Structure prediction request, 422 residues.
Amino acid sequence: MKNQIPFLWVLFLIAGCSSSKQIHSRHNIKTNNAFLENLLKKYPLYFDTILNNRDSFRVQILYSGIDRDKNNKAIFSHHYFNVDPHHYFYPASTIKMPIAAAALEKLQKIKKYGIDRNTTMLTEAGYSGQTPVYNDPTTPDGRPTVAHYIKKIFLNSDNDASNRLYEFVGQQYLNKRLHNKGYNTAQIIHRLSIDLNEDQNRHTNPIKFFNDSGEIAFKQDEKTSTRKFPARNILLGNGYLSNNKMIALPFDFSKKNQIALTDLQSILQSILFPSSVPARQRFSFSDTDRKFIIQYLSQYPSETFYPQYDSVVWDGNAKFFLWDAEKRALPKNIRVFNKIGGAYGFLTDVAYVADFERNIEFMLSATIYCNSDGIFNDDRYDYENIGLPFMKHLAEIIHNYEITRFRKHAPDLTEFKIKYEK
Prediction:
């Protein structure tokens, strides 16, 4: 992977790429350009099968080169491969990123009650299917907080932590805020890994925040979403398992979460580089909250005191672009600020990558469908032999290309050099 084609920079100039501050997140047609296509073709061992079966793999790739001006302002050049916001992929845990950002934003609305991300948050049960949370054994003192839920979301993609923030934010508020910011493809309409129906997912739990004296600082009643979403008809595969029985019908994703890859990367860009997107696309949380979420987008489980993770939780668990089948130590010079998702045969990673040794940076997002038998819920997906190697090799060729790419101004990456817990 070290040997690069000498004329890659020429390809970059003639690729007909899109160069703008905003990702084109609301295309009505498939978006593609020559740069990524040509780059992938240089590595047939890794990508020939993908290129020849791009639609059956439902592959989408978005790579954004970043240049800096003399004032270190980031300027993005976006490159697309097979990107289509109407070509459905199940986003799985990637939706936890906008949920976490929306939770921090919502805290700003109630900060006048003395509430911040470290305030005790107790979740009650007030409707069918709901469960309460009165303590969190993974914290130093047992207190559930927004901050700790966010840590668990990014460190090891914790589903319950995401569900608790979904309940705090509320389905209607969450989707309204995302749509108001221009992330119109988002339909985040259900909790994860809990078998609840549409009505149950529209209802979110009553919540209480307690101050340091043990008094209720703020009480949020149960919320019911009345927001209407456009109808979808998304049937995939040949069959699925239900209650250990094979159902020989396509699996229906019409009522599953959705969000376009372009919107996911735009959300990450808005968190990391808020001045690079229009004001309406940004999240309104404090600078300290922004630094907090950036830290845990990149921190490893082994660098964390609470939660305490054992060796089973490898540092690369939530870093598909740094995947290694042998689970060896991750490179010390590279940090990936990202959110992954994996379920129903879909793998997705949305990331900003910083290499502090070579002083380079880029954004890379990709999704791939790894379910060759077309059967869902059988736990027989092609993650290990197709999806994860694809993610790793894609990141490698983009990183190696970035090493060769000319930059008029070297980036100052000081902002992303973070002091982690340990």
In short: The chain has two domains: 8-89+259-416, 93-252. The first helix runs from residue 8 to 14. Residues 93-252 form one domain. Confidence is low (pLDDT under 50) at residues 1-21, 25-29.
